[in-house]
Amino acid sequence: MAVDPSLHCHECRYCRSGRGNLCDNWAAIGVTVPGGAAEFAVAPVANCVKLPEHIDVTDAALIEPLSCAVRGYDVLKSNLGSEVLIYGSGTMGLMMLELAKRTGAASVEVLDVNAQRLETAKLLGCTGAAARAEEFDRPGGWDVVIDATGNAGAIQDGLGRVAKGGTFLQFGVADYATTAVIEPYRIYNQEITITGSMAVLHSYERAAALFASGVLDPAVFISDRLPLEQYPQAIDQFKAGVGRKIVVQP
Ligand SMILES: [Zn+2]
After folding, report:
1. Is 187 in contact with 164 (CB distance < 8 Å)?
2. Fewer CB within 10 Å, N- or C-terminus of the chain?
3. Are residues 144 and 109 part of one domain?
């Protein structure tokens, strides 16, 4: 079983219009109520997705972040043959890379200042990997630019890399106080779209189906598996930016 952690109130204006991820009373298992960092957890039946027998449930923790990436792609409505640029090759950037490949991108280029992380993007078959966008010869920009860093510098750089008629997706979670400069004339004159995607919306069950079909290789995405007793060490390792997804096994 895999569990969609979203707890929408079903009463507010956003829930009633089918946009529960924007719920005025947004809550989630593991965020606002006790979650999976325990031997047992409670979840509404409606949040549970039965997994096929061949799925190892200890890998299935990847379905939740994948469901956020699926939501991101829903927002993008990406066309076949798009040129895609992704900032960040952490797990979320890598998941966007996997979805870009499967939604018919003509090319997917990945940026990261961490050379070790870029190696994983190369392993997963990105078209190009670099520390700076200047290293790619694409003066016209990219149809789709995705920030998967939340970093102010990356976001600012990315906003200027969107091709005419293209879309910038704010997918990474920036600090509340982060700001960036936009160019209103260019947004008008070149019909640039700047949008965001927030968590999970009607995307969890599809992410589970994609996961069951092998869209992600758990051996690549999960770098460490720690027992529940070592939860503090897992948090420390995550904060230090070492490895990719760290699975805590109750
Ligand atoms: Zn609501």
Report:
1. no
2. N
3. yes
Give the Å distance between the CA of 68 and the centre of ligand 1. 18
Global ipTM = 0.99
For residue 245, how far is its CA from the centre of ligand 1 (angstroms)? 30
The confidence band for 110, taking pLDDT boundaries of 50, 70 and 90, is very high
For 153-182, write each residue's pLDDT tens digit. Answer: 999 999 999 999 999 999 999 999 999 999
Q: How far is the CA of 109 from the centre of ligand 1 (A)?
A: 37
Neighbouring residues of the ion ligand 1, judged by CB less than 5 Å:
9, 12, 15, 23
CA-derived radius of gyration, the chain:
18
Any residues with CB less than 8 A from the CB of 246 and at least 6 apart, and which? 222, 223, 224, 225, 226, 234, 237, 238
Whether residue 140 sits in one domain with residue 57: no
Give the residue carrying structure tokens 């640029």: 85
Report the sign of the C-alpha dihedral through residues 158, 73, 21, 222, in that order: negative
Please tell me the distance between residue 42's alpha carbon and the centre of ligand 1 in angstroms: 20
Domain count, the chain: 2
Under a CB-based contact definition with an 8 Å cutoff, are residues 47 and 3 in contact?
yes
Considering the domain architecture, whether residues 57 and 158 belong to the same structural domain is answered as no
Q: How far is the CA of 176 from the centre of ligand 1 (A)?
A: 22
With both helix axes pointing from N to C terminus, report the angle between 63-76 and 91-102 in degrees, rounded to the nearest 10.
50
Amino acid at position 82, single letter: S
Model confidence band, residue 244 (pLDDT cutoffs 50, 70, 90): confident
